[in-house]
Design a protein that fits this description.
With about 260 residues, this protein is an alpha+beta fold. Helix content is about 20%, strand content about 40%. It is rod-shaped.
């Protein structure tokens, strides 16, 4: 057999051998599969306060700044209840006419976020000069007030990102004041022309602002237009009205709830 014929024979033989495999490959079923699945991601846990030393630090800082504490009532101890009056002489030891040392004890309770009621008692230890003998004497007197307060700018402070809780806002108030003791001539908002009355009463329209100083402090500053409800003997102006504004300042400790 010639080489050419031999080559053709081998080629045909190879094609015949591969033909069944090609037919099977075309007719065999497709065994591939497609599947679908869903993955769910668990929500991240909410942040928690640090533990150990850091947790104690956060708690102490929160208490110091009154964070997350909404107070409904507040005890206040004003420490600036003092004053003195002199006759104007160079020697103050001999010219003392009147001096007062005491405290302001107040309680304020919220009726709603904007409205509150306030009660205050101010015991005073007095040192005064007797009008007849000119001798220095000692005495005791008490001033008190009952007032309603309306904190009108809470929403404005909130919009500005400022504290509007814990009695920290500007307010309008109507206050009924009283004074007890014959050696004093004062109520919380009114100074009578003369002493000697056992009981003195006054009424005042008040505008003020109150702020908290950390956890244990407060400042309360107000301006009042007062009117005497009991006779103001010796005053020559319009009866019952003390012309001009009276300024008051309370600084002290806030005890909260």
């Amino acid at each position: 057999m010639r080489p050419t014929s031999m080559f053709r024979f081998l080629r045909h033989t190879l094609l015949l051998a591969l033909l069944p495999a090609a037919v099977l490959a075309q007719t065999a079923p497709d065994s591939s599969r497609i599947s679908y699945s869903e993955e769910t991601v668990a929500p991240s846990p909410l942040p928690t306060l640090p533990s150990g030393e850091n947790s104690r630090f956060v708690q102490q800082y929160s208490k110091l700044t009154r964070l997350q504490i909404e107070e409904q009532h507040l005890w206040k101890l004003g420490l600036n209840n003092f004053g003195a009056t002199y006759l104007g002489r160079a020697d103050k030891a001999d010219s003392l006419l009147f001096s007062r040392v005491g405290v302001h004890l107040a309680y304020e309770h919220k009726l709603s976020p904007a409205w509150s009621v306030l009660g205050e008692v101010s015991p005073d230890f007095l040192r005064y000069r007797d009008a007849e003998t000119r001798a220095l004497r000692h005495g005791f007197a008490v001033r008190s007030q009952v007032a309603g307060r309306y904190y009108y700018n809470l929403n404005k402070r909130i919009r500005k990102g400022k504290s509007a809780s814990n009695f920290s806002a500007n307010y309008l108030s109507l206050a009924l004041g009283s004074g007890f003791g014959r050696h004093s001539d004062e109520t919380p908002f009114y100074d009578f022309a003369r002493s000697g009355q056992a009981v003195r009463l006054s009424l005042a329209a008040v505008y003020g602002l109150q702020r908290r100083l950390g956890r244990y402090g407060f400042v309360d500053f107000n301006m009042a237009l007062p009117m005497a409800l009991t006779p103001d003997r010796g005053r020559e102006v319009v009866p019952g009205i003390n012309i001009g504004l009276v300024l008051n300042l309370r600084i002290g400790l806030a005890l909260g709830r």
